[in-house]
Design the sequence.
């Protein structure tokens, strides 16, 4: 048999590894140092970026140093910089550097956090970190939970656990095709701010997205709980089988928090699963000034959080907490001799594949564990309250300006508003131009403003729809954003708005 020395593993030898590793650290350090100066978005058409990476399948190995060069030469110039202090797209977090180091360490050992034996320290770190997260948001610390790829998978895990727990028959064995099912399973969320990932969950679970029932909201965009009760009664009378109510804990367009205490009571009274979707906002529970809005969160059967959003952890990292851990085991337990081994020994522990949807799993917990140790809850409190302050600052700029309209009170870090020149609003109010014509014009204008600011590279802002109108939306989910970044972005939006307005009015023939 050939000695291991003669067998080429293609592992980098230690000196080569060090050399490349130091270069890589240098590239990352320089990048982080220059992130504020980079255009936030590459602003190139898709075909152009596709062409950059149009390489043949590498038949032969290449020099690692040349591969590393591709990062600054080809990847970075075509990246969108979510870590920029003026990136405000989707609900994307900025990614703290400690997470990048943690990911490298996790990959170097390559534990599989699906099973304890393949990941003893990773499993225990995950268990500890989940407990810390529960403690941070004042959720019972004896809950179960795990890290997921993101909020969607956390919602799936929570809602599936709820379905298994509340269905009147064993859905794990019989599935949804069982003749024991007495009607259509239904789940409930607020009509304006309920998140689209819940539809995805309903589709993945085979419930179908028709199963998602939209409950009317109040003027502050939170669920009207009287309407929820009426709808539950109507659906039950029609033969449906409600099993879950989803409360938003920081909503996607306006950062609203549903009345959690009231939803919890409805769910308790009717034996429904209460799932809190806190992907955007659950971490805000650490802020004393916001605490009262979170009352009732501790009563949720399950809570989704997204460390890759408002803990600024690099992708991917979602999280689900489940009040009664045994319900997770009832949902996800699996059995196979090749997983368990044949003999019980002391050298085993909890296996995450038994309480969640994934079997093989990466060591996501490490980046949260290291970041929490690095920043501390106190440090996070300061970052989160600065995100909130930035949203409030933006709101005050909007309200001071004649050409912008505020659409809601700022609550957490997501803020939506509209560019709407005063003369056009006055014309619509006086009836010299029809309200519909002005609304349609403003939809197009706001979309153009978002597109143009993205291309400018100064900031990345997107639109959303509020009460069916296209509006600007900033998700200020970066530990680097300051009020000065908000000022710069706001002023750029205003300048682009003025320019695009005069252009677009000409093409629309809109005279006021
Ligand atoms: C309220 C809410 N729930 C769920 C999700 C889905 O999270 P992810 O994109 O991490 O899957 C999001 C994403 O923005 C969200 O805002």
Sequence:
């Amino acid at each position: 048999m050939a000695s291991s020395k003669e067998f080429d593993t293609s592992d980098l030898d230690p000196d080569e590894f060090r050399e490349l590793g130091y270069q890589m650290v240098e590239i990352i350090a320089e990048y982080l140092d220059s992130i504020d100066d980079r255009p936030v978005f590459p602003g190139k058409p898709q075909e152009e970026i596709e062409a950059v990476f149009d390489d043949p399948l590498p038949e032969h190995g290449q020099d690692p140093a040349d591969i590393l060069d591709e990062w600054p030469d080809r990847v970075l110039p075509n990246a969108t910089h979510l870590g920029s202090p003026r990136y405000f797209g989707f609900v994307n977090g900025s990614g703290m550097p400690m997470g990048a180091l943690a990911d490298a360490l996790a990959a170097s050992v390559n534990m599989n956090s699906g099973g304890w034996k393949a990941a003893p320290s990773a499993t225990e770190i995950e268990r500890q970190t989940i407990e810390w997260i529960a403690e941070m948001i004042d959720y019972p610390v004896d809950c179960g939970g795990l890290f997921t790829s993101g909020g969607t998978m956390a919602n799936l895990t929570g809602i599936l656990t709820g379905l298994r727990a509340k269905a009147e028959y064993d859905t794990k064995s019989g599935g949804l095709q069982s003749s024991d099912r007495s009607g259509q399973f239904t789940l409930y969320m607020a009509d304006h701010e309920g998140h689209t990932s819940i539809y995805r969950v309903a589709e993945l679970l085979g419930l179908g997205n028709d199963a998602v029932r939209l409950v009317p909201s109040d003027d502050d965009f939170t669920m009207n709980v009287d309407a929820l009760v009426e709808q539950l009664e109507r659906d039950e009378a029609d033969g449906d089988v409600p099993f879950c109510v989803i409360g938003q804990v920081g909503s996607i367009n306006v950062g609203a928090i549903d009345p959690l205490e009231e939803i919890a009571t409805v769910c308790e009274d009717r034996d429904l699963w209460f799932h809190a979707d806190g992907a955007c906002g659950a971490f805000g529970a650490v802020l004393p000034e916001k605490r009262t809005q979170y009352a009732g969160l501790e009563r949720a059967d399950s809570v989704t959080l997204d460390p890759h959003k408002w803990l600024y952890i690099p992708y991917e990292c979602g999280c689900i907490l489940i009040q009664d851990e045994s319900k997770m085991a009832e949902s996800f337990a699996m059995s196979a001799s090749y997983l368990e081994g044949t003999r019980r020994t002391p050298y085993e522990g909890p296996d995450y594949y038994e309480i969640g949807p994934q079997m093989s799993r990466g060591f996501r917990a490490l980046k949260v564990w290291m970041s929490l140790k690095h920043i501390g809850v106190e440090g996070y409190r300061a970052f989160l309250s600065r995100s909130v302050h930035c949203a409030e600052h933006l709101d005050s700029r909007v309200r001071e300006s004649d050409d912008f309209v505020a659409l809601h009170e700022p609550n957490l870090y997501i803020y939506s508003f509209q560019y709407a020149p005063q003369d056009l609003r006055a014309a619509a109010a006086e009836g010299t131009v029809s309200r519909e014509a002005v609304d349609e014009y403003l939809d197009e204008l706001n979309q153009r403003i978002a597109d143009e600011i993205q291309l400018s590279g100064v900031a990345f802002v997107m639109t959303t729809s509020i009460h069916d109108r296209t509006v600007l939306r900033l998700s200020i989910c970066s530990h680097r954003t300051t009020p000065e970044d908000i000022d710069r972005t706001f002023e750029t939006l205003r300048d682009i708005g003025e320019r695009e307005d005069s252009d677009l009015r000409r093409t629309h023939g809109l005279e006021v």
